[in-house]
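=== Per-residue structure ===
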Amino acid sequence: MKKKIVLIGAGSAMFGLGALGDIFKCSALEGSTVVLHDHNETALDKVASITREFIEDNNKHFTIIATTSRKEALKGADFCIIAIETGDRYKLWEQDWKIPLQLGIPQVYGENGGPGGIFHALRIIPPILDICADIADICPDALIINLSNPVSTICLAISKRFPQLRLIALCHEISTMIRHLPRILNTDFSELSIQAGGLNHFSVLLKAAYKATGEDAYPDIIKNAPAFYENRPDHGLASAFLRIYRCLPITSDCHFGEYIPWAYEAADHMGILDYYSRYKYECTKPIDALKRLEQGTLPAEYWRSVAIIKGIITDSKHEELAVNVRNDGFIACLPEDLFVEVPAVIDADGIHGIKLENIPEGFEALLCNRVGVLRMTVKAVLHQSKAYALQALLSEPVVNGIQRAEKLLAMMLEYQKPYLDYLK
């Protein structure tokens, strides 16, 4: 079925070529037009050239358009996939992470939660709102699939500014369970039925069962997981959380620990530093472009954008393990306007979240700690307010002093002035 899919941020070879590879493997999308959009013309031209050569060599039936004009890109779009960053991603991320630590604020990773996550959101939300303003004007019925972090804050901001837009977000962290549970339980993942949920990067495994018998697999997880994680880097917090709360985080210490005030004490900091170094290297090293196009998104990355698009146009009624959608009662302890990460059924009418009934009260308490942080960060952006940005910092459970928060805000406004000078 012919559709128009716009990849915003397509100059990133890792994202652009991976998404294109997924699209080219989807027979239901043959004949579709894929628009590559990026503000970096050099990077965009490179991805477009490689893609057109691949299409010709492999007899793929797709039309490829590349443009630096967002308004041109969005005309007639059915699906808009957003994967952008602002500035030098790693330089800014390291500021988000290390400057709070220098001031004695014990945050774990600094990408999505903690004060670092707040500054990341303050930088990236304005350009994403600009993108969504064009979508609202040019293709208001298109489905927006956001892949940019921090997911929960970005989605809340979009929904507040543009409540009429169709919006979901995706993250690959559930793939950790796909990799780890077979080794913990000594069985193939296809033999397991699982359910997980929470907030993006802050979700836990709620149910696990053996499909053949329907038997609850959680007792085996509780018994076997500590030994599995004992010698794995970046899982000290996961082991502690399982022991105390009797439920398993779906991701590792680096992300999960961003949201917990006591995580700094339990997290495996050497493992986190090693993970960050490997991640930065993998994302910045030269890639084999043709191989990326042939493979598409790797199973370990689990970006399911194309699976969801296919499910909508084919009325598949299949279930996705993790989709970020407006809450609407799916997690009862959280406000309905937040975006939560839950399983969802995909059909011709769209994406339908599944209500989670069995979230442990202890984890609910930790989830509720995030509400004020998300709301005040979004309010700071929408009102362009330094005062609200300070209130967002002081809502963050890991921020341990008003003077530290005020000094941090002043420093970050100076260090990241090109991206934060809209705050008055």
Summary: The chain is about 50% helix and 15% strand. The two ends are 48 Å apart (CA to CA).
